[in-house]
Amino acid sequence: MSVTVDLHSHTTASDGRLSPGELIDLFGRRGLKTVAITDHDTTNGLEEAFKAKRAYPDMVLIPGVELSADSKDTEMHLLGYFLDYENDSFQKTLSRFREGRVGRARTMVKKLSDMGVDLKWERVLEFAGDGAVGRPHIARAMIEMGHVGSMSEAFDKYLGRGSPVYADRAKFSPIDAIELIHSVNGLAVLAHPSWVDNLESQLPLLVEAGLAGMEVHYSSYSLELITELESLANRFGLVPCGGSDYHANNNDGEALPGDQGPPEESVDRLRQIAIQRTSIH
User: Fold this and answer.
1) Domain boundary residue among 136, 159, 182?
2) pLDDT given for residue 74 in this prediction
3) Is residue 220 within 8 Å of residue 255, measured between CB atoms?
4) Which pLDDT tens digit goes with each residue over 212-250?
5) How confident is the model at residue 280 (pLDDT cuts 50, 70, 90)?
6) Nearest to 80 by CA among 64, 92, 95, 91
7) Percent of the chain topping pLDDT 90
8) Nearest to 220 by CA among 248, 187, 245
9) Sheet hosting strand 74-81, strand order edge to edge
10) Is pLDDT above 80 for 169?
11) Residue where one domain finishes, among candidates 105, 134, 159
């Protein structure tokens, strides 16, 4: 396998289906050397992940997180890497945003019920377990009840932004998300940029705020899109990052860890920027 880096993945601490330990074992079996776990609004899976990594002494695990942000009628996700994640203030902020996820999920389940799509809230919570509640947990409950046949159908018809039952929750602005990541000596990277409307016009402010990188080698991106995004990243001085965004959903065509990812050179560049930021502050 030529890809040895995966900087975007999820566990049962948010909306993935593998425990942190199981995901580390999968990384090991897939021959990955540098990985990041980037659960939504939580770092609660990292302790277990670091314990599991002891079985893979040559593997580097970068502590990460994924934050949702809103800007100009589009949603952005910011990945944070090399975090001093045990910082109390940081953890309190993440906890507050996870609470917002619960309220949003309740609202969406109620909207589904009003449309005749009956779900039990308790079942959604069972799918979430100890993790941060998210729309994928609602989707899994919908699939179980036969309301939809797949995660993509659930999001396209019901749960996606602009869909009938979509509900907002408190989110950061992109600048606030970057500042939060910086507050714990982390580096901010824009996730799945093809999802961002008017991407090129949005980048200058993000770069000014300290954005360090942008996902280029992401999930199932085509070679044409990768080339286009890499050119854009180079133009703005951003490190080309990426990964599988693995959730273990077992969907047709789901990228596996190691199917897509940046070169080790990108990790070296990120690490140098992180060292510079720490020495400056």
Assistant:
1) 159
2) 83
3) yes
4) 999 999 998 999 999 999 999 999 999 999 999 999 988
5) low
6) 64
7) 78
8) 245
9) 5-6, 34-37, 60-71, 74-81, 187-190, 213-218, 239-243
10) no
11) 159
Paired tokens of 171: 């989110």
User: How many domains does the chain fold into?
Assistant: 2
DSSP element (H, E) containing 70:
strand 60-71
**Sign of the torsion formed by the C-alpha atoms of 111, 117, 121 and 123:** negative
Provide the residue range defining the domain that includes 248. 5-88+173-280
Q: Can you tell me whether residue 36 is helix, strand or coil?
A: strand
Residues 184 and 57 in one domain: yes
CA distances from 254 to 57, 218, 243, 261 (A): 28, 12, 12, 14
> Which residue is associated with the tokens 């159908």?
153
Residue 281 is predicted with a pLDDT of 52
3-state secondary structure (DSSP) of residue 63? strand
Q: State mean pLDDT over 31-51.
A: 97
Q: What distance in Å separates the CA atoms of residue 191 and residue 243, rounded to the nearest whole number? A: 10
The pLDDT tens digits for 84-133 are 999 999 999 999 888 888 888 899 999 999 999 989 999 999 998 888 78
In 3D space, the residue among 93, 15, 13, 102 whose CA is nearest the CA of residue 49 turns out to be 13
Q: Which two tokens stand for residue 2?
A: 């030529």
Dist CA 199 CA 233 (whole Å): 11
- C-alpha 180/C-alpha 132 separation (Å) is 19
d(CA 233, CA 31): 27
Decide: helix, strand or coil at residue 83. coil
